[in-house]
Amino acid sequence: MSRKAAFHNLGCKVNSYETEAMRRQLMEAGYEIVSEGEQADVYIVNTCTVTNIADQKSRQMLHRAKKQNPNAVVVAVGCYVQARGEEVLKDPAVDIIIGNNQKGQLLPLLEEHFAGQEESRMLLSDLAGSSCYEELDTGGAESHTRAFLKVQDGCNQFCSYCIIPYVRGRVRSRRPEDVCDEVRRLAEAGYREVVLTGIHLSSYGLDFEGEKRTPEAPFGEGLKKLILAVAKIPGLERIRLGSLEPRIITEDFVSALAACEKVCPHFHLSLQSGCDSVLKRMNRHYTAEEYLNKCALLREKFEQPAITTDVIVGFPGETEEEFAITREFVERVHFYEMHVFPYSRRKGTRADEMPAQVPEAVKKERSRILLSLAAQMSEEYRQSFVGCRVSALMEEPAGEGWMTGYTREYIRVKAAGGMELAGKMVNGKITCRNDDYILE
To answer: Which CATH topology does 4-125 take?
Structure first.
């Protein structure tokens, strides 16, 4: 009798991709995949450790799984595990521990466990010395229209607040021919759009022999080549990019993307702070003015591009004056979407030891101020498209007689119709009714 397995994913789009790849491993081995709320023989929790809240959620999900079925095998996977392996190993709710760069070993570890080989409880990587990209593949499904595709892992930036380089390791890139092979399979399976993603996507290819950063091969050259190669694949209509380093936005890079019709004008440029003194303490490698110039270049080459970002509030030492500078700066840039995070202390990072840690109440108030501003800017951006003709990729039902989808700028719209529109491009003029953006 086949075993049942349930998955729960926490964290970023890279985690989502890896969860799908693990799900595929078990499906091909004959496991029945059930929802996380159902009784299962195996529960796999792909964890996150980017903040203290992420750690807490990871522990909660592991305990919830064991409570749901005390006899089930609970597998803790990913970043929280990589950071706190020995601690997780002592947790009675957890049976198997798998760190990063080892997720392809899920099936053999389960087989060893069911065979009674208890010594196989923990598998962690020494990521500090690893230069090997772990190949994973999610496969395709005709019922979907957009696929997230992990092409890169690890980060060499070591921002002073970030634990990720320690749990994901150094930059490792997937070979372009392997990326294109998977995109080709996805296009043949009915996907019309792919989102290229990674832990530090802008560093794609820097680890390849002969692809080190030189005047002849500038930062971002590897990613540019990959995008243009993926764009040649028949059947694929859109390429969307994950989070980008502001330094990658150069005349050459942006001009190449603007000339490629499949690239969506939707760019996530992590800002973190609009104040130079805070950026310096964060170990970010640009100034606010340089960031502003990158946004201006995108707006010069693309018509009404959607520019989104992340901002951290309450970084150690952030004064009221520094926060005010950030607030004024984000208004000046005028983002489509802005994700706001209160600074979270991470043991092992330089920021954890910095003086003048900001009280939680202050962080909460600063978050509230920026989130209110973010909602206002987002609505203003969407309103700027009312009356414009756009193309939207339809994805899923939104009540009887309606389907929802996204424009190239990632504006969510509704169109009249049923499932016959799924995976289809619908053209129309945007109108706004009762806070819904509708294609007519």
So the answer is: Rossmann fold (3.40.50)
